């Protein structure tokens, strides 16, 4: 019996039974994402979520990977889950807005950008993308206003300004 206990302790000290943390899976997934292995990234983001079901960043980043694979509805589900966990997560709101825009749901996208901007009034990219959505809905005055605000906050909105403000 002592030999089994010593063997177990020896194996444990070498990390044989070491558990991988949610953060380690997230880091692995991020690496796979940047190596353009979206399916592998999704697997690791999912493992992080299994370990920590409230890991908002894992949901958001899994949504980004799904979006890269053109799984827009799956991406929206992940962004929505991240927002349910943290209603003040402006990045997830912004990303969900982008995905809705790709589905041509510009009114739904604008709703997400509005909330993201309320959370972070200096979120230049949210202003820019809200302006783009307004542009596609034919609201040139609103698009121009958002483009100028994005530019004021440091985003290069010159293309949208040229299209919407003239």
Could you please describe the fold and organization of this structure?
By secondary structure, this protein is mostly helical. The protein contains ten helices and no strands. Residues 5-17 have low confidence and may be disordered.
Sequence-ordered SSE layout with sheet pairings:
Layout: H1 2-13, H2 22-34, H3 38-51, H4 56-68, H5 72-85, H6 90-102, H7 106-119, H8 124-136, H9 140-152, H10 158-164
Helix pairs in contact: 2-3, 3-4, 4-5, 4-6, 5-6, 6-7, 6-8, 7-8, 8-9, 9-10
Task: Report a brief summary of the structure.
The protein has helices at about 1-15, 20-35, 40-50, 55-70, 70-85, 90-100, 105-120, 125-135, 140-150, 160-165.
Descriptive tags:
166 residues, mainly alpha
Low-confidence stretches: 5-17
Question: What summary fits the major beta sheet?
Answer: none
Q: Classify the beta-strand content into a percent band.
A: under 5%
Please state the average pLDDT score. 91
Number of strands: 0
